[in-house]
């Protein structure tokens, strides 16, 4: 075997080993975060561990922040609670104060308006699920109320303050809310919501 071929084979083995280690480490970290989410949900929601189920919310997971939807397997139509694993290992559960604010500050840089609105709708009392292009009936009702700016919209002021405008739909109460959120660079997240239209 030539030295060149031997060197290439050795390089390939090292590369493959490195990729395996990186994948193994990432998988181990993800499994550890999931276990900690399950532990915290069991304690906070007072459910038997065997009934707690958590699944990753891929559309929100980014930049080291992993989102989970937690539900009780015995309550298929019950609520799904939002949990977040931050890059530093912290788990933000239902009892955590300012959890949307902390998540936005850690992982919101460069994210679009739909992601920001999705985080707030998932983690705060924003009046229901986020209205996006996949909810044409809710969009129709909002436009009937004379509102054209239906989808999430985000602006940043000169001082870095984030101004976010979006809508949510409360399926159980059949209500649509207009939500305005403000997050200054050195302040706390402020959320204002109001009912704008019943979908009856």
Can you put this structure into words, describing what you see?
The chain is an alpha+beta fold. The protein folds into two domains: about 1-95, no CATH class; about 110-200, no CATH class. Helices cover about 35% and strands about 25% of the residues. The chain has four helices and nine strands. The protein has helices at about 5-45, 100-105, 115-125, 135-145; strands at about 50-55, 65-70, 80-85, 90, 130, 155, 160-170, 175-185, 190-200. The strands form two sheets. Strands 5, 6, 7, 8 and 9 form a five-stranded antiparallel sheet that branches. The chain has a four-stranded antiparallel sheet with strand order 1-2-3-4, covered by helices on one side. Strand 2 and strand 3 form a beta hairpin. Helix 2 (about 100-105) packs antiparallel against helix 3 (about 115-125). It is globular. The relative contact order is 0.10.
Which ranges are low-confidence, i.e. pLDDT below 50, for 5 or more consecutive residues? Answer: 19-26
Cα-to-Cα separation, first versus last residue: 78 Å
The percentage of residues in β strands lies in 25-35%
Structural class: alpha+beta
Quaternary state reads: single chain
| Shape by Cα distribution | globular
Helix content: 25-40%
- Calculate the mean pLDDT score and round it: 85
The total beta strand count reads 9
How large is the radius of gyration?
Answer: 21 Å
Number of domains: 2
Query: H/E element string?
Result: HEEEEHHEHEEEE
Q: Quickly count the helices.
A: 4
The profile of the biggest β sheet is: 5 strands, antiparallel
Keywords: Signal
Signal peptide: 1-29
């Amino acid at each position: 075997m030539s030295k060149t071929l031997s060197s290439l084979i050795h390089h390939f083995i090292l590369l493959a080993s490195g990729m395996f280690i990186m994948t193994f480490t990432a998988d181990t970290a993800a499994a550890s975060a999931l276990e900690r989410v399950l532990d915290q949900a069991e304690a906070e929601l007072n459910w038997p561990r065997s009934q707690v189920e958590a699944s990753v919310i891929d559309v929100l997971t980014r930049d080291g922040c992993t989102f989970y939807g937690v539900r009780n397997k015995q309550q298929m139509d019950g609520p799904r609670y939002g949990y977040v694993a931050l890059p530093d290992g912290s788990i933000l559960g239902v009892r955590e104060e300012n959890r949307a604010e902390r998540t936005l500050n850690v992982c919101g840089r460069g994210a679009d308006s739909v992601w920001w609105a999705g985080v707030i709708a998932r983690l705060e009392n924003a009046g229901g699920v986020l209205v996006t292009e996949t909810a044409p009936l809710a969009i129709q009702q909002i436009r009937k109320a004379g509102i054209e700016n239906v989808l999430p919209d985000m602006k940043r002021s000169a001082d870095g303050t984030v101004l976010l405008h979006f809508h949510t739909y409360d399926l159980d109460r059949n209500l649509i809310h207009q939500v305005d959120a403000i997050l200054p660079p050195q302040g706390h997240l402020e959320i204002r919501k109001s009912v704008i239209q019943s979908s009856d």
